[in-house]
Amino acid sequence: ETVVIEADYTKGSDPAITITLKDTTGLDVIDDFESYASSDDINANWSKNNNGSHVEGALVTDKTSSQAMEYKYTLGDYCGLTKSLGSVDASSFEGIEFWYQPDGSGNKLTIQVADASGNLWEYYITMSGSEAQKVQIPYSDFTVKSGYGDENATMGASKFKEFSIYVDKASEVL
């Protein structure tokens, strides 16, 4: 099973900011995959959740001749890849956007963001169909993972530390 993902922040409601935008500050890009020479580079920068099933990132070229990550997985219960962001002040942004091509499996794609306050924010997408699409997720649509933070917190108020992509079985929500 594979899912192709490119990720970026959205600034305000401007839909023109996409992963292909090169911002000289580097603050609005989670990963554009352009700096990687090989799949090994992706896997050196995206760590695998060792408690989950097999997953790895593969470097591919998308339809626009930009590089992207192909999310290759063999699903047991769940699998995940995480990119450390250091300490990113995302308070001037309103959400996260990315292009992805679902694999039609019906499994759940979970976008997870860890912030400096200890909150794990999540958003779920059912992977139906196989058409590539832009996904825009306002911070207000994320929820704190049960038992992993302050359910009254506001996403974006604290600096982001990690960005994770998980896949779990359709009948389960992590």
Q: What would you say this structure looks like, in words?
A:
The protein has 174 residues and is mainly beta. It contains one helix and eleven strands, in the order βαββββββββββ. β3 and β4 (67-73) form a beta hairpin.
Please provide a brief summary of the model.
This protein is mainly beta. Helices cover about 5% and strands about 45% of the residues. The longest helix is centred in the first third of the chain and has 7 residues, at about 40-45.
Features:
174 residues, 5-stranded antiparallel beta sheet, mainly beta
Layout of secondary structure:
Blueprint lengths: L1 E9 L28 H7 E3 L6 E7 L5 E7 L4 E11 L6 E7 L6 E8 L4 E7 L6 E6 L4 E2 L15 E9 L6
Antiparallel strand pairs: 1-4, 1-6, 2-5, 3-4, 5-11, 6-9, 7-8, 7-11, 8-10
Helix/strand-derived class? mainly beta
Strand order of the largest sheet: 2-5-11-7-8-10
Shape: globular
Distance between the termini: 19 Å
Strand content: 35-45%
Arithmetic mean of pLDDT? 81
Oligomer: single chain
Computed CA radius of gyration, to the nearest angstrom: 15 Å
- Helical segment tally? 1
Helix percentage range: under 10%
The count of β-strands is: 11
- SSE sequence, one letter per element: EHEEEEEEEEEE
Low-confidence stretches: 10-24
- Biggest beta sheet attributes: 6 strands, antiparallel
